[in-house]
Automatic annotation (TrEMBL):
It comes from Luteolibacter algae. Pfam families: PDDEXK_1. It comes from the Bacteria. Residues 564-724 form the PD-(D/E)XK endonuclease-like domain. Coiled coil: none annotated. This is PD-(D/E)XK nuclease family protein. SUPFAM superfamilies: P-loop containing nucleoside triphosphate hydrolases, Restriction endonuclease-like.
Amino acid sequence: MLREALAESATAILAPNVTTPGALLHLTEPTIAPSWIERIAWIEVLESISPDEWKAYAALFPSPPTTKDWAESLAGEIVSLRTTLQDHLHNLFTASKFLADTPEADRWESLSRLENLAEKRLASWGFTSRSTALRTEFHLPTHFSKIILAGITEMPPCLTKALESYEGEVLSLIAAPSDEQDHFSELGLPLSSWADRDLPSSPQVAILADPNTQAEAAFQAVANIAACSSKIALGSADDQTGTLLAKIFTENGWNAFHPASSQPPQALVRWLHAWKNWLAKPDSRNLATLLTLPECSSIICGKRAQKLQTLNKIRDKHPAVEPPALLNLLAKMDQPECAELHATVSGLLTQRQAFLGNDFPSALETHLKALDIRDESSRHTLSYIGDFLLPASPIFAKLNRSHVFWLQLLLSELPINPAQPPTDRVIDVQGWLELLFEPGEHLVICGMNETLVPSRSGGEPWLSEKIRQTLQLNTDADRHARDAYLLHAMLRMRETRGTVHLFCCKNGLGGETFLPSRLLLQVPRERLVSSVKNLFREIEPPESDLIWTRDWKWQAPSAATRQRISITALKDYLSCPFRFYLKHLVRMSLPEPDRREMNARDFGSMAHSALEIWAKDPDARQLTDAGKISAYLAGTIDDIILRDFGRKPPLAIRIQAQSILQRLKWFANQQAISSAEGWEIIHVERKISIPSGEFLLSGIIDRVDRHRKTGQLRVIDYKTGDVKSIESEHRQKVTARTKRPVHIPEDAPAYQNGIDSKGKSVDFLWKNLQLPLYALAESIDSGGQLPIPCYVHLGKTEDNVKFTTWDSFSEDDLESARACADWIIGSIANNHFWPPADKVKYDDFALLSQNRPFIEAFREI
């Protein structure tokens, strides 16, 4: 703004130099270590101290640090502390002398000794710390005859001292009338007296519920003013509210720009973060992240989206599968997309090894050349990376640090992508310190909350207010005076014409509680009570008077009816026909590629696979010794783990595998008893089909047993979940308390009249037809013999691992189950998938309904 004004009014050819106070502390000598090199020096020093040597620093650390990466985090804190101390040309040594008579003396003396080691480490690398350079080389420029301080409300104390002793002319321009000069220092900085002064006028102050309603109120205030944008000074002391302000004004026709709004990372920075994680841990999750980024296309020969889709499908079936095991799985699949993914995974692993096998600068340069860098912001980042590598080159060879360490350090030094103003912007949302220079007659400020106005120090763990005062650093009291002056000045500017609206909020977006700024209570005694009542009144949540309603409903996609229906899917239709439609016809599901352990489906599949392999082995299934059966199954589980998860499966998978092994050991005892009772296995994974109208019901029976003496058959299904009995899993007794499903008519064959365990006539409602239809298929193939439905429970305890049969199962039950299946098939053929059930036991689609009734969330199909 100052540059623009000078350019507009200047008559001279050469303009004056314009800079900020902090820039005067900038030193350009190449031997001054950048902050990241200083941080490395501190890391090296901290890590070089042995456990015995830490005793000399007991005041700093009563116990030697042992946490992971402790040196990196502590080094960052100390470098930040030294940067703050530079405001008064302090280093840790001089600060320790100032604090020698305080309770903090021993701690700062320990820091001082560590600083000496870090300075020596920097010197051995040919660098000097900025703290040392400032103490020996800082001075104001001598080639200027006049320094003008324009609108400066705060500056580093060392600069204040230097200006007070400056031999040239120093002129301070203060935004205040001449009769206020007693409230400023000789350099024009606000004095502490501002903190005790009453506000000069009575602005309109409002407290709102949260940042959203605060931003909406600010927009409404501007709308009521009905002035053009050049007449409005809009700002926020809170960046979060500032972003919301820009959003609301833009949505309502005033394109607004908030310079402090957070920006997404640049494409190259985002990629380097993902590549760093891949270098650190080449697991399937980081592999999937690489494939989500467009930059990956140039190093995997294209088809990135297709390969990512294939990868996630495999990860959904195989939890926590890592690249080595993934390559084994892909090698056994004959689909073209699997072969392409195999080449991609293998290539990324090879590139990772090549990167780690080369020195870091060469590896990074080669990698960046392979990327397809097109956007302009990433090209600027490439230039900055080059500037980083140049001074760092001597350091790389001297330090034994990993490539991941260097890449993380580089990423921490890359500049943040600044927000870019839209070309058609109408108004800017300024920050608190910029608002003084906004000329608009109508002032609207949000975020007038305590800790924001007046602002507080950064909360450094080493610098209490008392220590700041002792070291003559800027304190919270100084910021209080500064912010009080700024608010007074902004109000006085609009005393004769214009308006002022100040907004604060009671809660943040995360529910945290805020207090109104103390400056809003700096009013004359006669207005204090009304101000307190206004600022501390009860505020209702913004949605307290609203009833939640949907703006729209989901429209389920169309799907063709399939001629082959799985027997196990009939359970889903009986539970809810609409969810059946989504799951089995639309083929909608909620994938879980990022799970790090087996879910219930995976757990059951592993147990099933082991039992299938065992039962298909003609010799193994004839075993009658429980120990030998158990040993065989244990070996099978080991093979499955090796096949699906490689040689180093995650801990969670190993724990779950042990649980399966324990259950299979208990199963081996029950299998030995079953064999001794005369039962033998005759079929394993038996595929069956039952005609029903124009459809075909299909399924796979886990196992079919036959008794050696009687010839009795039993159809078996393995169950790893909690079940009470076979009958209760398949049908429920209808009582006066039973809530009949809205999607099943009372005359439907899903209801069966039968006899309960007490011999009374009752109605049953089918919930599942799996084992009855398995029995039907086996009965048809065996010439009419009625098999016994049987579960093999693989429960959590030894008592819950057993063979359970449905002994009362009869021909009537068989025919009722068949009639129910035919009714379901007829309903599917006629596209009867509505209405949905209110609730189901396990709802895979609850996310879509947002825990509301399905009939409210979806349009009827």
